[in-house]
């Protein structure tokens, strides 16, 4: 039987979409639409997995950015220790339930973490999901005592305790508790009391470094990663004091840290990416590595991140990690650039305005196609690549145009504020590919992605080779 999310929010048939679109060229399809470069996604996912494996830490990918089975499998790789995932909606987990049940049946230990503090109305759906996937397959976040009332309900429906991670606020102030506060201390006591009754199990602590998006260097990202690990380490030690006071054994809590800038910053830790690095960076890397090894002696450390398979203009602005554009390695000394961004939004030029104070153009794509989140590195809503144009301007494949103003279904192209010289010539009816500011929001405007592959022969790089359908629903 299909899960509620699949029943209520059916997706279009992938087979039907393939029949209609696979083999066509990007210029042959009506815009706007979303394009994914499969080769770039594969590189980004592989580099993240290899960095975590080299450091000896776990990795729990977030699937909210792409909402597809295909990218999830790339994020997990071999899933040698079972599939550990974060979801923002239960529907995301429901669409993966059969795959995760298969892992469970093979003796692996999949686990889905519902990545917002637990809404009480969702506990029955989570219990159904656990029963469908297998033992210990569902975990939740809590940051308020009232959320623990769902523990006995879950236990009654599944026969096992509800696994909880306490959400810790280390400066982002979106969700979670400061571990130095009385509220945090009281929540620990409440969780451990319910743990004695058998209705919940405290398995760890989780923080999200959303404030890392304002950083602008690898050093800033590594410093914040250190703060994350130190903060959760202190939170876990505090919880262990309560364990000891209650005569309980010392559990090996999971400490889950990350956001794409801080999680991907570990890719700077290895020799191939340290070419030309400053003494400050070397010192921070050494400090972070020592801290990781010390914490791992008593706790299980894992990274989590979500937008890293796609990247976007916001992530480029953080300059947190090295480029993965060279096959199988890191481009020495190079920061991530547009060559590492897998998602572009295709739009059509519908009008030109050469008589305005500076030349502008109108595209038939606005906030519903691109999102409306700003980026600190420039004053626009997307950067137009030089795809389909004569030559690039200003490096990194830029055309000299940006989406300078935006409304629901309209975008106004203006001069790229970070490029010298005149923008490249446009014509009406021309399609342009745009790097969005925030991939998570831009992708949400589309039901599926058209897949291209930049490793194919040059005359096939604009060919649609696959279609990946996004999951719908909450």
UniProtKB/TrEMBL annotation:
It comes from the Eukaryota. SMART domains: D-ser_dehydrat. SUPFAM superfamilies: PLP-binding barrel. Residues 342-453 form the D-serine dehydratase-like domain. Coiled coil: none annotated. The keyword Lyase applies. InterPro entries: Ala_racemase_N, D-amino_acid_metab_enzyme, D-ser_dehydrat-like_dom, D-ser_dehydrat-like_sf, PLP-binding_barrel. Pfam families: Ala_racemase_N, D-ser_dehydrat. Keywords: Lyase. Belongs to the DSD1 family. PANTHER family: D-SERINE DEHYDRATASE, ZGC:162816-RELATED. This is D-serine dehydratase-like domain-containing protein. It comes from Lepraria finkii.
């Amino acid at each position: 039987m299909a899960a509620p999310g699949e029943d209520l929010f059916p997706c279009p048939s992938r087979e039907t979409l393939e029949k209609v679109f696979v083999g066509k060229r990007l210029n042959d399809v009506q815009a706007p639409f979303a394009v994914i470069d499969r080769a770039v996604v594969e590189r980004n996912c592989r580099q993240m997995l290899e960095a975590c494996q080299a450091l000896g830490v776990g990795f729990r990918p977030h699937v909210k950015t792409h909402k597809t089975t295909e990218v999830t499998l790339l994020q997990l790789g071999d899933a040698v220790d079972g599939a550990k995932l974060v979801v923002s909606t239960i529907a995301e987990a429901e669409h993966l339930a059969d795959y995760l049940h298969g892992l469970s049946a093979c003796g692996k230990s999949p686990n889905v973490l519902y990545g917002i503090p637990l809404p009480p109305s969702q506990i029955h759906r989570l219990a159904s999901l656990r029963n469908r996937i297998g033992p210990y397959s569902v975990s939740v976040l809590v940051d308020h005592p009232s959320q623990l009332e769902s523990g006995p309900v879950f236990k009654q429906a599944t026969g096992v305790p509800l696994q909880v991670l306490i959400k810790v606020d280390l400066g982002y102030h979106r969700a979670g508790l400061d571990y130095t506060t009385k509220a945090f201390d009281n929540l620990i006591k409440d969780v451990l009391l319910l743990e004695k009754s058998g209705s919940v199990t405290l398995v760890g602590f989780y923080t999200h470094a959303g404030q890392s998006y304002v950083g602008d260097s690898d050093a800033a990202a590594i410093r914040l990663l250190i703060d994350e690990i130190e903060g959760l380490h202190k939170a876990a030690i505090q919880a262990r004091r309560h364990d000891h006071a209650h005569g309980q054994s010392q559990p090996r809590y999971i400490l889950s840290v990350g956001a794409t800038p801080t999680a991907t910053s570990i890719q700077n830790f290895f020799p191939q990416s340290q070419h030309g690095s400053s003494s400050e960076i070397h010192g921070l890397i050494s400090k972070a590595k020592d801290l990781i090894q010390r914490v791992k002696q008593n706790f299980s450390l894992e990274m989590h991140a979500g937008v890293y398979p796609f990247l976007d203009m916001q992530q480029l602005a953080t300059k947190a990690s090295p480029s993965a554009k060279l096959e199988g390695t890191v481009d020495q000394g190079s920061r991530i650039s547009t060559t590492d961004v897998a998602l572009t939004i295709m739009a059509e030029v519908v009008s030109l305005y050469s008589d305005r104070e500076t030349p502008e153009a109108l595209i038939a794509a606005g906030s519903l196609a691109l999102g409306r989140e700003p980026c600190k590195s420039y004053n626009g809503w997307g950067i137009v690549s030089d795809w389909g144009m004569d030559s690039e301007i200003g490096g990194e494949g830029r055309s000299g145009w940006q989406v300078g103003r935006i409304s629901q279904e309209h975008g106004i192209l203006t001069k790229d504020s970070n490029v010298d010289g005149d923008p490249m010539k446009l014509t009406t009816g021309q399609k342009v590919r745009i790097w969005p500011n925030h991939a998570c929001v831009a992708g949400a405007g589309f039901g599926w992605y058209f897949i291209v592959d930049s490793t194919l022969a040059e005359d096939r790089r604009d060919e649609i080779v696959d279609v990946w359908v996004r999951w719908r629903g909450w």
